[in-house]
Amino acid sequence: MSVWTPDRQSRVLSEEQRALDEHYMREALALGEQGLGTTWPNPSVGAVIVRETPEGPRIVGTGFTQPGGRPHGEPVALDAAGYAAVGATMYVTLEPCAHRSVRGATPCVERTFLAGIKRAVVAIEDPNIHIAGLGVALLRSMGVSVTTGVLREEAARAHRGHFSRVRRGRSMVTLKIARTSDNYCAGPGGARIQISGEAASREVHLMRARHDAIMVGVGTVLADDPMLTVRLEGLENRSPVRVVLDSRLRTPIDSRLCRTARDVPVWIIAAEEAPVDAELALRATGAEIMRVGRGADGALDLEEALKLLATRGITRVFSEGGPVVGEQLALKDLVDVMVVSTSTKRLDSDGVVAIRPGLGARIADAQIFKQLATETFGDDLFETYERPF
């Protein structure tokens, strides 16, 4: 028979509070996910304000970072809560900012204190040198109780693009590979084939919408003349920046990308010596041309390209660039998340191999990638892998 003691009571209450903290932090993470792909160069932060009532805890305000990165999630939630924020707890997926930006917006730390929040639960600290623990320290100095590390791993995953841009100076990369059950992504001679079903295609469009940019090689442009937009009802305005890796500027000016460059941005990354006349012709369509050096293998320096995108504010890149670009990214350790979708369809003839030996070896190496999830969409199997944080 167990004996009730003050220590046991404290432990039970602590466990109850931990469960509540995780519950509301999951709510905040789900909110933050709604802004992915729209808030760059800022991270998409979710915030939930919870107030104790006689009937138990109640959410009185929610918010997430708005398009363009302002306002942040915390002030959106605080505005929604109004006076109900006094004495309440705020759950936030990333450490609140502590510095005044060039736009002069009030720091989230100050807004939190002035709103009367008595406790802040922060999933993970911000590596930004202007914050990096200062937000938490300032809140505590103001008398706000702060708990950190609640669902830290999930928050690190949610803010992976922001962390990559701040810590490594480059955008994070999600590599998407679609293949038949016998590992082909195109038919003989590169002929286009329909691999994925309708449900899988919808999921891919959702993935596009959650990234800041979608990146392909010029070979994909020449073979498929893709649009690279989000074509889901209600999400048409969520199309990311379209990036083409095109060392010699071979992108046709009458391609669908160029014909729509004034509607959805097209950024073409070329080699330093790419012809100027081709650049002028592409610029006339509304496309923007950027240049980077070549690597030791003679191809575009992919790391330099990703660092260039990061300087433009891009935090999350979705690569659908085909097997060659995909393998190059993986071999240079530039892939952070990989999604392999496998159809039940077979090609049953020689075609373009989807996962080449180098990429296959990377996927199989548990020291490089670990499997995160396995899901089915219609008849297509999606396997998601990630590099350790």
What characteristics describe this protein?
13 helices; Cytidine Deaminase, domain 2; 5-stranded mixed beta sheet; alpha/beta; Dihydrofolate Reductase, subunit A; 9-stranded mixed beta sheet; 389 residues; disordered N terminus; 23% strand
Task: Please give a structural write-up.
This protein is α/β, with parallel strands linked by helices. It has two domains: 6-158, 3-Layer(aba) Sandwich (Cytidine Deaminase, domain 2), CATH 3.40.140; 170-386, Dihydrofolate Reductase, subunit A, CATH 3.40.430. Helix content is 33%, strand content 23%. The strands form three sheets. It has a nine-stranded mixed beta sheet with strand order 11-10-9-8-12-6-13-16-15, sandwiched between helices. Strands 2-1-3-4-5 form a five-stranded mixed beta sheet. Strand 8, helix 8 and strand 9 (241-245) form a beta-alpha-beta unit.
